[in-house]
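FW: tagging you since you asked about this chain on Friday. Here's the raw sequence from the shared folder, copied in full. Didn't touch anything.
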Amino acid sequence: MFVFTHDVWTTVLVWLVVLAGLFGLNELTRRFKWIGLFAFVGLPIILTILWLTVLREKTYTDWFHLVKVYSALAGCIGFWAIRFVEKKDKVTKEVVWRLRDNKWVLIFPALILAINILEAVIRDFEIGVSYFNQFSGQISGDVTGVMGGSWNFMNGIAGIINIITITGFFGIVIRKATKKDQSRDMIWPDMLWFWIIAYDLWNFTYTYNAIPTHSFYAGLALLIAPTLCAFTVGKGAWLQHRAQTLAIWCMFAQTFPSFQDDGAFVVKSSYNEVTYTVFGALSLVVNLLVLGYMVYKIIKTKRNPYKDELYVDLKGYQEVKAMA
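HL: got it, structure written out here
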């Protein structure tokens, strides 16, 4: 599955450092309002100037990497605004208006998520059509190249299903501040563990298909970090964690591309067709199961998953909702 170009245990240690770094930086940016704003507005402005000048010949310039970094940042900025943009009365200091009280604003998280998935789906199909049953050789965005096949189409369909199964976005709320956690996370009660696991499996398969030299870090570590946070200290806020860790990683990768491409700790794909096929099929099957469960709940509850919250009777939903 993976081919290590350096000592395996040293590379695994570096991977753990990456995982811990993503988790820790996400905690820092979610718990402190102004650090989060600087990380996703001020820092990207500084880095963009560097990417366009002194790092112009080194950084990624293909459409996918550029769209990915700025779409992730757009998500972070939008989520920050949903969490914190409000107006207070000058005299009483009471909140008289909040951005998130406008229901149409809550379409944004689902929309940015769907666009992010669709970008990858298009890329998967593009590779499948362009390099079906052949090895591409070095291409823009990956130094070793990709190998197309039926797995691209299976995973592309899985990604489309993953978009269809995004439910209950009008139920997005803000986590109440406590002594232990002042983050005011953007929590999404209807986005439960089974959808998250289906997404993670789809996204890892995508990275393995389309950017194989990046999948050990941008696939495994980058997916585990927000999922771990969503299942522990930051329950219910997976999408916020995903956007923030993705933006942090994309900025790092744009600034230090050699880390994944030709550095000492690069991990490459084995280009084994069986591995590709297994992950493509597994991604499709798991997402089909989530779709089947969604349809079952629609029939049983008579709820519209795009207007109402669908999983209100589940314990996981109720635990997250209680934090709002």
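FW: The longest strand covers residues 95-98.
HL: agreed, and The chain has one domain: 2-171+193-291.
FW: great, closing this out.
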